[in-house]
Every structure is written in C-alpha cells, then in structure tokens.
Write a structure and sequence with these properties.
Elements (H helix, E strand, L loop, with lengths): L2 H5 L3 E7 L4 H10 L4 E2 L2 E8 L2 E8 L4 E6 L3 H8 L4 E4 L1 E2 L2 E2 L1 E2 L1 H12 L15 E4 L8 E7 L5 E8 L2 E8 L3 E3 L4
Antiparallel strand pairs: 1-5, 1-6, 1-9, 2-5, 3-4, 7-8, 10-11, 10-14, 11-12, 12-13
Length: 176
C-alpha cells in the first residue's frame, strides 16, 4: 500500500491521560463515536473492613484509540477532557502495531489469570518490592528464558551477589 492509502486507514494510537482519568477518557471518546480500548483486569481491593473485586486499568494512565489520525480526529481526541497527549515523536503520533493490541485483547478475553508485569531490560536498575529482599536494589543481569525468574546483582560490601527472584517482585527504578 502507498502512504496515501494508509493515511485513510484507522490505526491504533496510545493516549496518555491524567492520573486516574482512564475511565472518564474512555467514556468521553465513546460518546464522540471514537473507537477506543481500555484494557482492564479484575483485582481484589481492600476497603477498611472488607475485600471487594474491582476493575483496574491494566496500563494506568493510558487508553488506546483506533482512528484515522487526520487533523480533525487528532484535535477531537486532544480536546477530550482528561487526555494529556497522543504518544509519538517529533513527527507526530506513532501508531501501535495491530498485533500488540490484538494480543492484549486475546489475553484479557481468555480464561488465564492475568497480572501486570513491569517492562524490564537487562542492565536496568531494579528494586525488589516484595518478599524478604524488599527494598534491595541492583542491576538486572539476566532474564531467564521460559521462566519468570530474574537474576539481579545486589552490591554488598563492594561485592556482588546474584539472586534469582520472581519478575513480578521487582520494579524498574526511575532515574529522575
């Protein structure tokens, strides 16, 4: 297809929303007849004396839209209350590959248990967020294939020790 032909096709784009405004943005986009997708998962919430199942955004702060990104639609999307920006680069919005959205939809539509997992890369600084090593920081040395185990190095008396830890137990450390 030529560039002209693809300009008329709707593509998936990711919107950054104000904190905890994903549902409002999703509803307002639907009211404007803009096709959108807010991936959610069911989690247990602890409220004072009871536990309750609630729907929570899988990607907090983000909503996906399936639209032709011409100037009219771009402005309509950006005027939606709660939308901060359309993710992209200096040349404009960048489309999310269809296969990635389809994969998320299939995973959420399946019977398997789904849990969010931090985006991690080898060499990244990570912090342990649960378990006996909670609070430790180190470099992510290796992501083992076929298992959700990570090997991190924690500096201890100017020596490193390696430990295998579940990937869901660590989060990336931002260097802000």
């Amino acid at each position: 297809m030529s560039k002209m032909e693809t300009d008329d096709l709707p593509l998936w784009y990711c919107l950054h929303t104000r904190s905890r405004h994903e549902e409002v943005v999703f509803q307002r986009l639907e009211e404007k007849k803009i096709s959108s997708f807010l991936p959610k998962l069911e989690v247990w919430s602890r409220r004072k004396d009871r536990r309750k199942k609630i729907q929570k955004a899988l990607f907090p702060g983000y909503v996906f839209v399936h639209e032709v990104m011409d100037p009219y639609h771009r402005l309509e999307i950006l005027k939606t209350p709660g939308v901060v920006k359309i993710l992209g680069n200096e040349r404009g919005p960048v489309a999310v590959p269809d296969i990635q959205i389809e994969s998320i939809q299939k995973i959420l539509g399946g019977k398997s248990a789904v849990s969010p997992f931090p985006y991690l890369k080898e060499g990244q600084i990570v912090r342990v967020v649960e378990g006996p090593l909670k609070g430790c920081e180190g470099f992510l040395l290796k992501i083992k294939e076929g298992r959700e185990k990570l090997v991190i190095s924690v500096d201890l008396l100017q020596r490193s020790v390696a430990v295998e830890i579940d990937g869901a137990s660590v989060e990336p450390v931002s260097l802000l």
